[in-house]
């Protein structure tokens, strides 16, 4: 009845020996051993889904910062810092439609320790866990690495995801002079998105689900019950719908990748301004041809001093609201 989701999680599996108690205290940072993690994943794969939890990851959702400076670069792509979360309400409707009890929704910052603690706890307590956000190419996209560390797994290049990325991406969306075969900061940033948590003892096809022939990005599955999705609402909905073989929305956009063209600069900037209490963000604005870079901190004068530098390096301009630069006659690009 639940389509691909239920077939994936509740399908018959061999009677593997497994550990029945791999519990992490909320404050513990000690990872599972590899064998215990694999055994727990097999156990979770066999569970009937009764309960669910949703983990929204991203500073842009939390907001509540004293000052925010947004700069729109002149390259396609990205979403502003103060964002209204629509993914958890949609996930609630999704669970209700399938008769699954949504027991918990949490919103946390882009902080590795918080992600590790939350994802371990939710995976242990609930049958079906969905995370949203933090899987892009920039320095603040740390969901994959955090989940990998939570379950003592390596990040491994997923060859199929890379092949799909290369095939489905348009060259112009990578920025000027980008070459897949030439080492560059932009290439390194892109490759971050196809290094996923991987358990060598489990079938690879069970750890990365490709929902749509037009999308290169997979839904990754860790510990048998943690599903990692992008934070962009249209893409979140499209991939989630694919888990139950539901037709995707016709106006959903494909994942833009051009953040990677300035990822190296933003990473350097973030390191330089962190001692001053400033956080740098780069967020997708799906269906638009611009990205938003945000500077968040308590010292407005210092933030203002950074604006000319950021405008110059991302070839953009400061805006007062996120839709200020949206041209009505620009055709959406897809990759």
From TrEMBL:
Example GO molecular function: FAD diphosphatase activity
Database matches in Pfam families: MoCF_biosynth
Comp. bias intervals (Acidic residues): 322-335
Signal sequence coordinates: none
MoaB/Mog domain sequence ranges: 53-251
Matches recorded under InterPro entries: MoaB/Mog-like_dom_sf (IPR036425), MoaB/Mog_dom (IPR001453)
Alphabetical GO biological process terms: flavin-containing compound metabolic process
Region: Disordered, residue numbers: 313-335
Top-rank taxon: Eukaryota
Protein name: Molybdopterin binding domain-containing protein
Species: Arthroderma otae (strain ATCC MYA-4605 / CBS 113480) (Microsporum canis)
